[in-house]
Queue: 3 jobs
Job 1
Amino acid sequence: MIKGLSGLHKDLFLYLLILPGVLYFIIFKYVPMWGIVISFQDYSPYMGVWKSPWVGLEHFITLFNNPDFFILFRNTMMISLMNIVFYFPMPIILALMLNELRVERYKRVIQSVVYLPHFLSWVIISGISFLLLSQSGGIINMLLVQLGLQPFDFLTNPSVFWQLLTVQSIWKETGWGTIIFLAAMAGVDPQLHEAARMDGAGRLRQIWHVTLPGIRHVMVTLLILRLGSIMDVGFEQVFLMMNSAVSDVADVFETYVYRNGIQQGQFSYSTAVGLFKSVIGLIMVIGANKLAKRYGEEGLY
C-alpha cells in the first residue's frame, strides 16, 4: 500500500496531466450513458425516468418494421463506406507527400494551407459549395457554359449526392488528418531509410518498404476507430446539403433522429435509434480488432 502511494506521489504531475481528459470522459461520456434506459420506456418529461412506463423492445421493433429503415441504413452505410474508401487514404497520401519535402519553409506553408479548411464550419463549407455548384449562378456551371457545355445539376442530383459529401469531407479534413500520420512517420528509424538507400532503393521503394510498414500500426488503429463510428456520417453536413430532390439518398439515421426526437418529441424512440447505432459501432470495433490481431497487428486492446 505504501509502495503504491509512493508511486502515486512520484508520478503526481503525470496523473494531474491526464486528469482533465479523464474527467471529460466521465462527465460527458460515461455519466450520460444511464439515459439509454429511456429507449426501453415510453418516456415522458413530466413523469421522469423513474415513473415512465416500461415498454421493453417496443421501440426497436418499431424501428426495424419501419418501411424507411432500409433506406436509412443504406444511405448511412454508403456514405460511411465512401468516406472509408476515398477519404481515409487521403491523409496518408498527403502526409507521405509532405514528409518528402526537404525545404522546411515550404513544408510549413503547405501544412498551414491544408489545415485551414478544418477550422471552417460546415455552414461555411456548404455556402462555398452553393456558390461553386449552383446550377443558376454557380462558378463552375458558369465556366461550363463559357466553354460551350451544358450546366450540370450538382446540388439536386441524387446520383452525385454521396460523391459530393465525400469530396467535401476530403477537402475539409484531409489536411488535419495528416497530423497523426506525420507524427508517426517522424518516429520511423532513420537508419532504416539509410539502409534502404545503401541497398539501392529509391524514394518510392523507401516509402513502400520502410515508411508505410513503420506507420502500419497507426493506420490499423485509426481504421478500427473509424469503423466504430461507421453509423455516424455527420448530421450537420448532411442536414445542410439535403433538399427535397435528394431526400431519398440523403436521409440518414441522424437526420431521422432529429425529426423524430427534436421536432416531434419522440425521445424514447430516437434514443432507441441512437442505441442501435452504438451497438453496430461496437460490433464493428470488436470484429475489426479481432481481424487485425489475426493478421498480426496489435489492435486496440
Note: The chain is about 70% helix and 0% strand.
Job 2
Amino acid sequence: MINRELIRIKTVQLVYAYYQNGDKNLDTAEKELFFSLSKAYDLYNHLLALIVAVTREYSRRLEVLRAKARREHTPEPSAKLALNRFALQLEENKQLLEFTEREKYPWSETPEFVGKLLDMIEQSQIYKDYVADAADDYSSDRELWRKLYRSLIQDNEDLDQVLEEQSLYWNDDKEVVDTFVLKTIKRFDEKSGPQQQLLPEYDSEEERDYARKLFRAAIMNADDYQRYMSDASANWDFSRLAYMDVIIMQIALAEMLTFSSIPLAVTINEYVELAKVYSTPRSAGYINGMLDAIARHLIRHGRLLKQISSPQS
C-alpha cells in the first residue's frame, strides 16, 4: 500500500523536521520516517473500520425504530443497510479484526461523528436509490459503499477534524490513503469471505528500501546537493530561497542521483507537485526550472547518466 508518492511526502516532512530539530541523529530520524509511514497504514485500516462502525450504528438504530414501529403499528424501516453483504464481510475480515483489537482510537469513542455520518448517508440520494433498488446482491452492496465513500467520506471536513485530533500524522496522509481504501472496496470478493486480503503495508521490500535510501541520501549528501543548487542559481541569492524549496530540491536530487531506474521527468514532476502543496505559490515554477538546469549540468559533466525527456501525458 505504501507507495512512492506517500514515501516522497513523508521524506519531505521528515527531512524538514530533521533540520528543525536540535538533535540531528540520522538513525532516530529514520525510525521516525518508518513510524510515520506505518501510521499511514494504520489510517488505511482505521478508515475501513469506519464502514463497519457506521453499519453497526445503523443496526442499533434499526432495532429502536423497529420497536417503535411495532408499538405504533407503522411500517418498519428498511434493514437493507444493516444486511449489506460487503460491510458484513468487512466486519468479519481477519486482518481488520486484528487491527481493531489493538486500535488506539476505536470509532466507538467518537459516536457523535459516526452518528452524524450515518445521518448524512440516510439523507443522501445514493442511499435512497440503494434502498429503492430491487437489486439485492453483493455487487450492489459493495457499489453502495464505493459511492458513499467517494461522496461523503473522501472529502469530509468533520472527519478531517476527528483524524487531526486522533493523530498528527493522519491529515497529510488521508488524500493518498483514500485512493487505497477505494481500491480495496473495489477488489473485495464475496467468495473470499473473512479471508479477503487487505492491501499489504508494503507491496515489496523494494519500496521500504527506496524510502531508506532516499532519506539517507538526501541528508548524507546535502552539502553536494546544495552546492549544485547554488551553482545553478547564479542569478539568485541562494540564501534567500524558501527553506522548504531547498529541502524539496535536495530530496529530488537524491532521487535523481540514487535511483537509476526512475526517469528524470518523473522525479522533477513529482517534486514540483509537492512544492505546490508544501511551499510558496511561486515555488513550483522555480523548482521546475532549477531541477531541469541542475540535471542538464550533471548530465553534461558525466555525473548523471540519464536523459532529459518530457513527462508523458
Note: The two ends are 24 Å apart (CA to CA).
Job 3
Amino acid sequence: MLGAFGEVDAIEIDPAAREIASARLGKPVGSSPLPDLTGVEPGSYDLVAVLDVVEHIEDDVGALRAMARVLKPGGKILITVPAHQWMWSAHDVVNHHKRRYSKGTLLAALDKAGLTWRKLRWFNSLLFPVAVAARFAGKLMGKDDSDDSPPPAVLNKAFETIFGLERHLLGRLPMPPGLSIIVIAEPKA
C-alpha cells in the first residue's frame, strides 16, 4: 500500500517474519534492530513508520533518536503505540512489550529524543469499551493469560468493519480515548 506513495524499504528482526515480508515486498527486507538502526544510512527517508514497534524497545528514546537520524530534512515519523498502562496484562507480556503509553509519556519520550509532534490522536477508540470490559471481566474471573488466537470469523469480521470505519473518522473528528495512540513526529527545529 505504501508503495503508491514512493519507494518502500522495511526492517524486520525476526528471520521467519523477514522472509515473509521480503516475499510480500518483492525485495530484501533489512534486519537493522532498534535502538541503533546500524547500517541504515543517515538522511535517507522522508517517512519512517513504526506501527506498534516502539513499545517493544527497552530504550525507546534511543530508538526515536535513531529514527530521527535516518530522516531527510523535513522528514516525519509515524508512530503507533498501545495506550493505557493500567490495561497492562498477560497480552503485553507474551508480546514482549516493555510499556504502554499515555499521551504524556509518549510526548516525554519524543521530547527527550529531540522530536516534536504535529498530530497526536487516540485511535482504536470504537473498540475501546469492549476491550476494557473484556480486560476487567478477565481480572474479575482471575484470568491472567493471553489468548492470541483469532476470534470466530463472524466476530473477527465485525471487529475489522468497526476498525475500518474508524479510519474514516480519524483526523476528521476528535476521538475519545482508545486502545492506541498515533502521532506524527519530526525533529525539533
Note: Residues 153-169 form the longest helix (17 residues).
